[in-house]
């Protein structure tokens, strides 16, 4: 039976889908406003931070003002990271299209896989972790992806399947979820990874159970008493049964 709780859950899921579509449209708008190269970094950082706060902490502030504030938050760092990733991607793609030697193409395919892992986690590292310096941020993203390689593979598979379904049945959905789909998938993965990396709450110190403690105390006390006290010896006389 479809009750009130099911209706609330369905409404929450639909609101989440529309919020993700809104993030995708805002990403397109901010990227276009920055002429692509200058806008892709801040747009990706703003999306990563909004999704991180949403998935990790359950925060869903007003979409447009919050996204625009996040896009202007760090100024140069997202622009620099976006420019580096775009430049590296362009070089790898040009090499794949122009090179004919199989070993060079294989090396560039490996470079493309590494670049995908870094891109998937880089902006979440920038948004969620206190890592200073572009090199340290890129290395942290790579280590995060390789350290949880099974999650990276599962997330990449989910993104590929999602793109395949949209291309097969609903191409216009790419305008609504083309960037939001991988961003949401890897934001959820990062939330899970960072939650697992958090130190667990301090456990209560373990104490010996009271009955065992009392029995242990009695045993120690008994062992320290002289034998004359614990086991009195009766004198043995002739004719008296032992």
TrEMBL record:
Membrane-spanning intervals of the chain: 25-48, 79-97, 109-129, 141-163, 169-190
UniProt keyword Ligase present: no
Keywords on record: Membrane, Transmembrane, Transmembrane helix
Residue segments, region Disordered: 200-242
Transmembrane found in the keyword field: yes
Superkingdom assignment: Bacteria
Biased composition (Low complexity): 215-235
Pfam families found in the cross-reference section: DUF624
Protein name: Predicted integral membrane protein
